[in-house]
Amino acid sequence: MDEVVKQAMAKWPNVPHCYGWLALDARGGWRMRDEAAQQAGRAGDRIANAALLNFINRNYAHDEEGRWYFQNGPQRVYVDLEATPYIARTDPAQGFLLQTGEALAGIDQAYMTERGQLILQGGDKVALLDDRDLAQCTGALSIDGAPASDDRLMSWLTEAAPAAMAMRHQGRELPVQRIDSGALAQRFGFVPQPRG
User: Between 20 and 30 A from 186 (CA), which of 64, 112, 120, 133?
Assistant: First the structure.
């Protein structure tokens, strides 16, 4: 957390929290949601200012209840999460990068939802893989030891008792577990839409 943020928190400790005004979309985009966007249920305007994005990313954290927020000076701005607290992208040098710019070091678990979304867990971080990068990862997937073709992948998603899927990553074969997209928040302990 930035030192200036810590100083502001100490100087003004009782600033009310903010809810509903900031969102993280499923592609790692930070979105500002004014009152009109909130009332209409719209995603909000994508934040493009590099300095603001860097500031949000450096001061992004969660509380003990699993509510993610951006510490904006003395005020906590709670984040509506479209998917998971982090969104990952593939990176040739780092493997996977989070929307904060941090590498997702070491994948411990991999999951796939009924929608074909790939969820990666490394340590205490859980990230949805940006859907634009999924095609780059399908070559690392296998089903019952054979490459996961599109047809086999579609079958795996709909089978009542799916075959064993694995993902090659950093010289390891990780089992890929199926998970319902509606169960992500409970399974990983985060609050998708924090409210006061």
Answer: 133
